[in-house]
């Protein structure tokens, strides 16, 4: 029997690779003879680097110090994938979550002043290394700066009416009148793929500020202010603000599209890059999951994509989630295990997710019954 473990991260709780390891430990406690193939998933957000590192032999973490979304130095890294025929100098995987992500701020959100400069600095470091291709995960952003921070780190200059550089963050967009892209660094020869799990446009009721701004601390008036700033930016950069995914990561998707990068659905691209379809071809069962499986999980989230791949391969699939909400459709899964139900409460599940993931792995190994946790 071969089990493929392909969970996404349990956001704010446990990374995808660690979740897969805990599931494996629980499964082996019941059935030690099972062959387990870890393929931790990601959709461009938190855990993207870990997913690639766990799935691709000889991937190397390259340390880099960047300016975090709070304006302080931050120790981070990007991932160098081995050379391939189409990327002879290797591929760099750079993750916004670990360089400019909202989790880096804790409870001290900076709705108008957080920025994406650090993500751009990590991209620049990868370019300095000489990589052939970029894979950029842009989930879990802390800011609504339209990607001005990213492009600034790559050589762009955004100025006010006096020709002075605008402040970083959404606040700086208030004064934006010009964008100079003449010193913007070139894409690597193999281009750049941008991984995102959302399809929102940059502007308007479904845009970056209106939909994602409140979770970053923007109140109603600040949402209107940030959307107006993004509109000014849209008039200056050579990209379509209505492109699906332009509103991802506070507008970073739009900025990277203006740079020439290609926006792609994160979960599908990660699955292909880490070899998940090939792993499923030899699988007896696949286990996937995420922190909260809800009514929105069908829209491009990793577990739904893993389930679709498994169905196409004729492989049964099980779901493990921190919580499974009442509006979630779990009909595609042979088993669905909620860590909240296993632990007795959401607080207990969050306090020790590895323990309850081990319990979920044991339960699934026992055929969906409930062995002792």
Automatic annotation (TrEMBL):
Keyword Kinase included in the entry's annotation: yes
Keyword line: Kinase, Transferase
Pfam families: Gly_kinase (PF02595)
Single GO MF annotation: kinase activity
Domain of life according to the entry: Bacteria
Keyword Kinase: yes
Protein name: Glycerate kinase
Organism annotation: Microbacterium lacus
Species classification: Bacteria, Bacillati, Actinomycetota, Actinomycetes, Micrococcales
